[in-house]
Amino acid sequence: MQQLRDLLDEVPEALARQVFTHASWTSRRADSYSRLAFLGDSVLGLAITAHLYPRLEAERYGAGRLTKIRAQTVSGPSCRAVAERLGVPERLRAAAPEGAEQTTALMETERVLASIIEAVIGACFLHAGYDRTATAVVEAFAPELEHALEHPVDYKSTLQERLAQRGGVVVYEVTAEHGPPHDRVFEVAARFEDRSIGTGAGRSKKHAEQEAARVALESLDAD
Questions:
Q1: CA geometry: angle 78, 206, 150, nearest 5 deg
Q2: What is the structure's pLDDT at 170?
Q3: CATH number listed for the domain at residues 1-150
Q4: Taking the CB of residue 108, how many other CB atoms lie within 10 A of it?
Q5: Residue 77: what pLDDT?
Q6: CATH 3.30.160.20 region(s) of the chain?
Q7: Nearest Cα residue to 7 out of 182, 111, 138, 200
Q8: Residue 55 Cα distances to 50, 51, 86, 133, angstroms
Q9: Known binder of ligand: residue 118?
Q10: Which of the residues 45, 106, 142, 195 has an alpha carbon 20 to 30 A from that of 26?
Q11: Beta partners for 192?
């Protein structure tokens, strides 16, 4: 975490201010962290992918398994954990304008904390470039990456557990198939109470179902 903390401390004041500015705190949305989060999300995904690819055996870790490990490593809960270790809630509190009644609630929201850690990464990338930022990102997310390798999440099981609390069952429906038999891609919708709550695609039905479940979980978290 120290490398990412040091990089953040180097970021110019104006850029650092933008990292910790919520859209509701400014009249110009461009002054908030949204665009930086968009950039940082891509840098985060590439940094983790580039770190994983040469280190995991191709025989054991195909594209599908690598995708699951990366998705778990950079998921909302993982980003929130990194944000808390970096002290984002405290920085957010310090940056809040006087009378911002939503500050406490914002600091406890996974979606906001995850977006801000992405914005941190985006700002560091703009200031220091990819190489230094990627190295810092891999160090910061090391516990989450290790956990994803040792305890992979089954998104389908997790989604069913969540929806069981509402007294329902998720159903997966193949909505489309593309490509020749040897290179087939399946599109799947996760359906709950007669509506689609997530869609995914993959080279097998199981992979597509896992992706649909992952998207559904992100949608539930956002709600």
A1: 35
A2: 92
A3: 1.10.1520.10
A4: 11
A5: 83
A6: 155-222
A7: 138
A8: 9, 7, 26, 19
A9: yes
A10: 45
A11: 195
Over 90: is that where the pLDDT of 56 sits? no
Beta carbons within 8 Å of 66's beta carbon, 6+ residues apart:
49, 52, 53, 56
Catalytic entry in 31, 90, 101, 118: 118
Rounded Cα–Cα distance for residues 151 and 161 (Å): 17
Domain with CATH 1.10.1520.10 in the chain: 1-150
118 catalytic? Reply is yes
pLDDT of residue 66: 87
The beta-strand segments (E) located in 154-221 are: 171-178, 185-192, 195-202
Residue 177 annotated in active site: no
Report CA Rg, the chain.
19
Rounded distance between C-alpha atoms, residue 71 and residue 64, angstroms: 11
- CATH top class, domain 155-222: alpha beta
Residue 144, marked binder: no
Helix (H) or strand (E) holding 180: none
